[in-house]
Amino acid sequence: MKYINKKLTIENIGFQKIANKFETPCYCYSYSKLEENINNFKKNFKSFSPLICFAVKSNTNVNLIREIKKFGLGADVVSIGELMMALKAGINPNKIVFSGVGKTSSEISFAIKKKILLINAESISEIKEINRIAKLKRKKVQVGIRLNPNTDAKTLSQISTGKKENKFGVNRKTFYEIIKYCKNSKNINLKCLSVHIGSQILNHRPYEKMLNVVNEIINKTNHEFEFIDLGGGMGIPYSEKNKKLNYKKYNKAILKFLKKRKVKIIFEPGRSIIGDTATLLTKVIYIKDSERKKFIILDAAMNDLMRPALYGAEHRTLPVNKSNKISKKTYEFVGPICESTDKFITLKKFQKLKEKDLVAICDVGAYGMSLSSNYNLRPKAVELLIKGSKINVIRKRQKHKNLI
Ligand code: LLP
Predict the structure, then answer these.
(1) Which residues line ligand 1 (CB under 6 A)?
(2) pLDDT tens digit string along 5-59?
(3) CA 52 – CA 73 distance, rounded (Å)
(4) Which segments of the chain belong to CATH 3.20.20.10?
(5) Ligand 1 centroid to 58 CA: how many Å?
(6) DSSP code per residue over 133-188
(7) Which of these is catalytic: 28, 182, 192, 338?
(8) Which of 80, 254, 271, 376 is the most exposed place for a label (fewest CB within 10 A)?
């Protein structure tokens, strides 16, 4: 994304042109950014060529998953719906891992039927259920156990998953019990230890700590794991203030861990692959003056992008047509939804806006559209993939007739 003659563009196409043709609000994805992210991710860990399973929860658009698949990635899914979507996008079942604390019997059954690479179980009860279903089907099922390493990811508390108070994974004691259980089962093949300590992690140290815990635990068992699934969580800089994750140091810690060990590493990245590929293009409906600030009422709302309302997340917000006039008052960018949390960002300094102006909300590729809803009976926005000079509609704008 860059300004050309004061006009904001994506892959050299003006957002103004996109808005004229496709209307707003509108999700615009850059193919070249996606390609760059995947290539960089691979490059960062090329010395041990991991299996990279894209976390489908971050973006469930079948056309984007199809593009991601072309780079050889697999998928990390957390529901039967996501599993179906990954299969529809053509992802090889042998590259699919299934995580989540509450897989139902029918989800487990479907995953077994599709012969996916791993069901990563998160409790003794789940392992027993997998065993029961596998026995009924007379199958041997490949599973992983998700360990809760009790490691603080030093990220937002709402998206931290690796501490003992979080519902995810099992503690050491249960981990050893499950290994024993699996050894005695003819229908379970325990192949993987998995961990995922949280999301939007920008500091490599929590990963180092996590690896130390995993190392210690594996050394205490005499079980041969074929895979170690390190999850995802690699953060992206949402603002200039954010530091970038140091991939070199993370890579180094993994190489140290891999010394004397023959295991395949799996990653489950979502945000680091898709997060900064998309922009939410939106239009100012009204500007309302209050005493201290001006409300910039946009045609996008919390149903389109939930992250600010849910986590207080801030996304860079830019004018589509640049000018040098700065507003004297603070701007609060809000949506039309009847909730006070329907607000994107408050900015003290922003260029002067007028009604009908276009605004770009950045880095919304991950957990943007996938967290969107029809709240207030608002149809979901159109999704566009910009590839070279082509604009492809990869998901049509919902119509009211789809909802009513
Ligand atoms: N693997 C597992 C088991 C996960 O739970 C997650 C994310 C990922 C992989 C992918 O994490 P990533 O690489 O995208 O950080 N809605 C929140 C993020 C929730 C993440 C949930 N789990 C947000 O908008 O920031």
Answers:
(1) 55, 58, 76, 99, 159, 161, 196, 199-200, 231-234, 268-272, 307, 366-367
(2) 999 999 999 999 999 999 999 999 999 999 999 999 999 999 999 999 999 999 9
(3) 5
(4) 31-271
(5) 7
(6) HHHHHT--EEEEEEB-------S-GGGB--STTSSSSB-HHHHHHHHHHHHT-SSE
(7) 338
(8) 376
- The closest alpha carbon to 267, from 73, 21, 39, belongs to 73
State which ligand 1 atom lies nearest to the alpha carbon of 99: 3
Q: What is the dihedral of CA 72, 76, 79, 83, to 10 degrees?
A: 10
Task: Name, in order, each residue with C-beta under 8 angstroms of 277's C-beta and a sequence gap of 6 or more.
Answer: 29, 30, 33, 34, 37, 365
pTM over 0.85, yes/no: yes
pLDDT band at 392; cut points 50, 70, 90: very high
Residue bearing the CA closest to ligand 1, atom 7 = 199
Could you tell me the distance, in angstroms and rounded to a whole number, from the CA of residue 55 to the centre of ligand 1?
A: 7
Residue 50: asked if its preceding bond is cis (omega within 30°), the reply is: no
Paired sense of beta strands 358-362 and 317-319, if any: antiparallel
**CA distance linking residue 167 with residue 172, whole number of Å:** 14
The fold for domain 2-29+275-403 equals Lyase, Ornithine Decarboxylase; Chain A, domain 1 (2.40.37)
Tell me the pLDDT band of 157, cut-offs 50, 70 and 90. confident
338 is catalytic: yes
- Residue type at 113 in one-letter notation: K
Do 162 and 151 meet the contact criterion of CB atoms below 8 Å apart? yes
Report the distance separating Cα 28 and Cα 278, nearest Å.
5
Burial class (CB in 10 A: 0-12, 13-18, 19+), 240: exposed
Domain with CATH 2.40.37.10 in the chain: 2-29+275-403
Task: For domain 31-271, give the CATH number.
Answer: 3.20.20.10
Tokens of 127: 């392992």
Of all atoms in ligand 1, which is nearest to the CA of residue 275?
Answer: 14
* Distance separating alpha carbons of residues 122 and 143, to the nearest angstrom: 10
